[in-house]
Amino acid sequence: MNRVMPTSVLAFALSPFLRLSGRFLIVFYIARRTLLTLLTLFLIGFVFFGAMSLSGHDMVDIMLAESEALGDGHTLISVQLAYLRAHLGLEVPWHAQYFRWPGRILRGDFGVTLAGRACVRALVMPRLRNTILLMSISLVVSMSAALALGVFFSMRAGSKADLVVTSFAVFLQPLPPLAVLLGLQIFAFRTWLFPVSGMPVPAMAPNLAAFALMYLHHIFLLVVANFIFTFGYSQRMAKMFMLDQIGQPYIVGLRSRGFSERRILFKHALHNVLSPLVNLGKH
């Protein structure tokens, strides 16, 4: 009885959470993967930070070496070095320094660069916004195309069109990313159809719609590059998942009950394909 009670109490306490996780499966999946990713990054950073501390040199030593190499004539005395280490928080052990870092990150303090002493946040945030937006658009485009073609040709497996699309996907998959990027950049430079550098700002357009079109024009080739990198594998996997679902006994049962092929495909089979395809997307 004593062994059963804690288990029952735990199951009762977790029952609301389990019901919510069942109803919002995608939300809880994304939250779980996000937490695991953050934990992994934290542990990787901890290991690397500890490994760098084994060198016996800190940021002040690097700054002093740069000053001596440049020969600017300024020599820091030991008192100044001690004050600088205290100001940078280098007087505490390395593990204490590392555990301070997540708190500073959460407050938006990313520190300054070693070269030029520029604010890291001011350098990173504009690029981070563009990167997140670019990857989001690329992911939606590539996964939507892969899913649509995978579902469409799963019903026409072996046809000439299926062989053409599958051959195209197989051709795209092994292409070297560097060669693709260089080829697209040369194409943009030779034709002047697309910009090769820079990003637009809202002040460059008269309204939001014009700015959106200008932005899409700037990132078009990058979206194409990401499409090339991900489409081949994603399309073949989507088709494989759909073919696997079509061969399941419940599909035969639904057909025997008179359900239309369209309803079976989009309401039942496609629903079961989305979960493994989301798992595929995280890789």
Structure description:
This protein has 283 residues and is an all-alpha fold. It folds into two domains: 4-121, no CATH class; 123-281, no CATH class. It has eleven helices and no strands. The chain has helices at residues 4-23, 25-53, 59-70, 78-88, 94-106, 120-154, 160-172, 177-191, 208-246, 249-256, 261-281. The protein starts with a helix and ends with a helix. 10% of the residues are buried. The mean pLDDT is 77.
Short description:
This protein is mostly helical and 283 residues long. The chain contains 11 helices and no strands. 76% of the residues lie in helices and 0% in strands.
Characterize the biggest β-sheet.
Answer: none
Cα-to-Cα separation, first versus last residue? 45 Å
Q: What is the count of helical runs?
A: 11
**Rg estimate, integer Å:** 27 Å
The assigned structural class equals mainly alpha
Q: Helical residue percent? A: over 70%
Overall pLDDT score = 77
Strand fraction equals under 5%
Task: Supply database-style keywords.
0% strand, mainly alpha, 2 domains, single chain, 283 residues
Topology:
Elements: H1 4-23, H2 25-53, H3 59-70, H4 78-88, H5 94-106, H6 120-154, H7 160-172, H8 177-191, H9 208-246, H10 249-256, H11 261-281
Helix pairs in contact: 1-2, 2-5, 6-9, 6-11, 7-9, 8-9, 9-11
